[in-house]
Structure formats: C-alpha cells, structure tokens
Design goal:
The protein folds into three domains: about 280 residues, Alpha-Beta Barrel (TIM Barrel); about 30 residues, no CATH class; about 110 residues, Double Stranded RNA Binding Domain (2-Layer Sandwich), CATH 3.30.160.270. It contains 18 helices and 18 strands. By secondary structure, it is an alpha/beta fold. The protein binds 3-methyl-2-oxobutanoic acid and zinc ion. The site of zinc ion has 6 residues, from loops.
C-alpha cells in the first residue's frame, strides 16, 4: 500500500521570514485558508517570540483553521516554548516545533554551548513542550553539517522525551541528494524509537537541490516534507510544495507514495501568494511559472495536437490551471463578480466585497475585458492594503521627450493636502522625487518593477517596489491602467508599510 507523505507547509514561517515576504494578519489568514483548501497536513503559522504581530497571527490562524494542524516554532528556550504554547492553545490540532543547532560551527560560535549542554537543552525543551501539547516536533538545526552519531543520539533522546516528529534540516542548503538520502537512511536505521515517529525533511535551496534532496529523503524513509508555496524562504528558499507534491503524483510508479494535497488548488494559492508578497514567480518555474505548460516550438505544438502526452507529463488542469479566459466585462453584475471571485479562491467579507466591486466597475469602464489575472490584481490591491498614512490625491507630469520631465504630486494626510514639484531622469523618477520631497522621510528604494498583467495597451500595469529600512524590506504594489499612477501608488503603499512598522517595536529573536 502506498505510504502517505505528510505535507508541512512553512510558507507563513520560513517563507515569511525571507526579505520582502512579510505579510500582515489579514494576508496570513487568507493564505492559511488557502493552505487548508489545499489540504496540507500541518501549517507552520509563525515564530511566536519574534514579534507581537507573529504571535497574534499564529493565534488567529489557530482559531480559524480546523482541518490542518497548526504549528508554532520556538527555540529550545522556556519563554519561547511558553509563548508558542499560548499561541496555539485554541487550535483544534496544536503542534509545537522546537529546535536547537547541533553542528559544531553553530554550537561553538552561535550558541557557545558544549554538545552535552545542547543535548540537555533539547531533551528539556521537548519535555516542557510536551507539558502543553501532545504533538511536539523537534529539529536539529543545521543537521546537514552535524556529526551523524551526535544527531542519532539527540534524536533518540528527544523521542524518549516525547517528540512525535523529528525534523532533519539542511539549514544552509549544502547537501546533495545522495548524501541527504543516506543521512535519512542512517537515522532511520539508528535512532532508537524512530519507528514510532515521523521523520521530516526540511531542505533549503542554496544549490538548487531542495526538491531533489527532499525527494531523496522520502525514498529513504521520511514521512513528512517541510515546504513552501512557490519555494519562498530564507535566501534561495525552501523546497517548493508544488514541485515535491507533483513529483510524487506524476512519478507514483517510482515513489510508491501519495500526499493528501488537493493539487487543483495549487495555481490559485501560488498566484495569491505572489500577489500578496509582490514576489514574482519566474516564468520558467516548474508547475507554477507562466510558461510551465506553454508549448512554443513548432515541433512540440505539432506533437501536442496529435497526442498531448508527446510533450506533456501532466495536464494543466491537475494543478487547477485553466486558460486565462475572459471572466467579466462592463455589464457583469455583482452576482457574476462574486462567482468569479470564488472561482479564483476569494471569499470576501461584505465590506471588502463592496470595495472590490466598486473598483471592478471603475476598471471595467477603462478596460473592455476583465481577465482572471486582473481579478487577482484588483483584489490584492484593494483588500490587502495597510493603514493609509499617506494616499495619492493627484499628479501631473509634463514630459516633452527633450527636457527632463517635471512632476507635481499632491498627497493626502488626514485632512491635509500636501503638494510637491520635482524634475527627474524620467517621469517615474520625477514623481518619486516629488513624493520624497512631500513626505520628507529617509527612503531607500531598492527595487522597482513594472509588468503588464494581461496583453493590450489597456492592460493593468502592475508596479512592485521594495524599500529597505532598518534591515527590513517593505513591498508596495499597485495595479491600474495607468503605469504612472501605479508607480506613485505602489511607492506610497510601501512607504505606508514602512512608517507603520517604524511605529511598532519588533522583539529581536534570531534563529
Ligand atoms: O532551516 C532550518 O533549520 C529551520 C529550522 C528552524 C527548522 O528553518
Ligand atoms: Zn528553514
């Protein structure tokens, strides 16, 4: 009988931890709801000690999610564990995930602890976590560069202390598939009590091997995979859920296992995450990239017309991808709008629905055909907004093609209207300089991207900007049919997020 591999999604923790991928409470709740629709077994909702916002979002997710387990991460530290326990206490299926580093380099330089002390802390933390919940996962951070015998000793002892899952992270993405698989096989043959717990794989993608390593772990006995949507995560990211799930499904002849994932939800969730974080998925990305199912070469198209399987190993419908069909137009009513939103994976509150519908009508006046992608952009623009300290009132640009363009921008702040005029290398530069002048704050723009959401000159132009402030990255996004308006709004959106964060204190807790 095929084994079932549990899917542990860490988009909201390891994924959210990466620069520019931070999400607010509403965004996290919506992603969690999509993860539950996908039928993931475990949602790692955050790292409770890292900030008040993280704690509150884990708590809110724990209260909302019913089918999947909800997990909270903590270091092997008493106060961390208490906060993690508190954050998931209302979950139907709570899990605490505690970890400590076991590699020589981490123990010596980061922890400044002997291996004996690390072992003691690992055991104590699992026992303490176990006093709050039944389901306790334990990770040896940097297991990939740890001594195998020491790993086996730590895992044996934490299982004795009550761990239900042991996780084997390749924290720095250093391992290659044969080596990682061999480590999992060694642990499954050596660790005492291993037959009573899940062995989990957690791979980072620094060498582009995260999915291959995770699959190698599965072949060698792992029963849980930790992964993120679109592979987001620290540095080069984590194992991409869509890749590992589809590899298991498409090559079930080889793996002889299955997952509980409802694969038809994959595209929807990937797009939502990409819109929310402003993290664009590369077009040739496996499974969810824009070109993943596109056949351009004549010889391929010819083969496809004769027999799809000549060049297709899975059909787009398996991952919920349909043609980017016309969904709505100027005369579509509220009912059709709600239906289409549901098809795209959104169930909005009455308030949000009203805002989105007004925005849709405005867009339909300017753009003849509203496509599925337009709806994603519209919803993420309208619904996932932060508290607006500043908002764009108006702008005017004078550009002749010869002299430097000049922009006058007016911005609302409470009931004040503020105005500024500046010249720049181009129209966007002039607008941004005018905004800087009005806002009068230190702003460090590190990235500006513009892309057309669909074809045609009336398409929505989506602008994503990234600002860096105090080591954190803030993403602003906007899509309208006018690229200059999108540019101004995206910039102000990122500035608002940055200013809101400056007003909040973040508790420092590093992994
Ligand atoms: O990569 C890592 O080691 C982690 C642990 C906290 C599980 O994310
Ligand atoms: Zn990780």
């Amino acid at each position: 009988m095929a084994r079932t591999i549990k899917i542990f999604d860490t988009t909201l923790r390891d994924g959210e931890q990466s620069p520019g991928c931070s999400m607010n409470l509403k965004e996290k709740l919506d992603i969690a709801a999509h993860l539950e629709q996908l039928n993931v077994d475990i949602i790692e909702a955050g790292f409770a000690i890292s900030s008040k916002g993280d704690f509150e979002s884990i708590q809110a997710i724990a209260r909302k999610i019913k089918r999947s387990s909800v997990c909270s991460l903590c270091r092997a530290v008493k106060t961390d564990i208490e906060l993690a326990a508190e954050s998931v206490k209302d979950a139907k299926r709570p899990r605490i995930h505690t970890f400590i580093a076991t590699s020589p380099i981490h123990m010596e330089y980061k922890l400044n602890m002997s291996p004996e002390k690390v072992l003691e802390k690992a055991v104590d933390s699992v026992k303490y976590a176990k006093s709050f919940v039944e389901d306790v996962e334990f990770s040896c951070e940097d297991a990939g560069r740890s001594d195998r015998e020491f790993l086996a000793q730590v895992y044996s002892e934490v299982i004795k202390a009550g761990a239900t899952v042991i996780n084997v992270p390749d924290t720095v993405g250093y391992m290659i598939p044969e080596e990682y698989g061999d480590l999992i096989r060694y642990l499954s043959n050596t660790v005492v009590g291993i037959e009573n717990v899940d062995i989990s794989v957690h791979c980072h993608d620094d060498l582009g091997l995260a999915t291959a390593n995770a699959l190698s772990g599965i072949i060698n006995g792992a029963s849980q995979v930790e992964c993120t949507i679109n592979g987001i995560g620290e540095r080069a990211g984590n194992t991409a859920m869509e890749e590992v799930v589809m590899a298991i499904k498409v090559r079930d002849d080889l793996y002889d296992c299955k997952t509980n994932i409802n694969t038809e939800e994959i595209t929807k969730t990937s797009r939502l995450l990409s819109h929310i974080t402003g993290s664009v998925v590369q077009s040739n990305k496996a499974i969810v990239g824009a070109n993943a199912f596109a056949h351009e070469a004549g010889i391929h198209q010819d083969g496809m017309l004769k027999q799809k399987q000549t060049y297709e190993i899975m059909c787009p419908e398996m991952v919920g991808l349909s043609e980017n069909k016309l969904v709505l137009g100027k005369h579509s009513g509220r009912h059709a709008f709600v239906d289409r939103l549901k098809e795209c994976g959104y169930t909005l509150s009455e308030d949000d629905l009203e805002k989105a519908f007004i925005r849709f009508k405005l867009l339909a006046d300017k753009k003849k055909d509203i496509l599925e992608e337009d709806l994603h952009a519209l919803v993420s623009d309208e619904i996932y907004q932060v508290q607006e300290i500043f908002s764009l009132d108006n702008f005017e640009v004078h550009a002749t093609g010869e002299d430097q363009p000049k922009a006058t921008v007016t911005i609302k702040k409470d009931d004040q209207i503020l105005s500024g005029t500046e010249s720049g290398a181009g129209s966007v530069d002039a607008i941004y300089k005018a905004i800087d002048k009005i806002i009068n704050e230190k702003i460090n723009l590190i990235e500006y991207t513009l892309q057309s959401i669909t074809g045609g000159t009336d398409a929505l132009g989506e602008v994503v900007v990234r600002l860096r402030d105090n080591g954190r990255v803030f993403v602003g996004r906007s899509s309208t049919t006018d690229v200059l308006a999108s540019s101004a709004k995206a910039y102000i959106n990122a500035i608002n997020k940055m200013l809101v964060a400056r007003g909040k204190k973040r508790i420092k807790a590093t992994l």
